[in-house]
Amino acid sequence: MSLRKKLLIAFLLLALTPTLIVGFISSYISSSSIEQHIFSQLVAVREIKKSQIEGYFAERKGDIEVLSSTVEKLLDFSSSESLNASAHDLNQYFDKFIKSYDYYDFFLIDSSGEIFYTVTKEADYKSNLISGPYKHSGLGKLFKQVQSSGNFAMSDFSSYAPSNDDPAGFIALPLTTKSG
User: Fold this and answer.
1) Distance CA 100, CA 145 (A)
2) Which of 55, 68, 105, 165 is the most buried (most CB within 10 A)?
3) Cβ(157)–Cβ(166) under 8 Å?
4) What pTM was computed for the model?
5) Residue 50 above 60 pLDDT?
């Protein structure tokens, strides 16, 4: 090989080596920067979604609080028979409520766990959430939780047998009346 070819190869290697090194370093820095940018965007999206979910649950709590105060004013609590009759008399109101707010059903449950009113009248209607077949369902567990705490609560979504085993989540608020 001639000296000219050797010098040409040596100069090319000398010129290409720093270029390749700079290229690799730039690629590393830019990919790291892009990764950090994407991670920041994902964190921002997470925070937005978190805020939306918290807002959704706050709205659901507001819905049930408004409904609870309405129920207190509209239902006749003088006896269990009058309570049952007044709940069924308001079926059109409750049906409109669940359709307007995009709920699947609405339940009224007495302190013994008996579901004495439901808009859709599925298999859980007239069942008992303490001793009946749905005591281990999401609704049964939520009933027991709200009964023991005396506070608003929500259940996680899980299969619910009376609704064709479709996933169902429940929200509940205990209703206390002046008579007990």
Assistant:
1) 27
2) 105
3) no
4) 0.74
5) yes
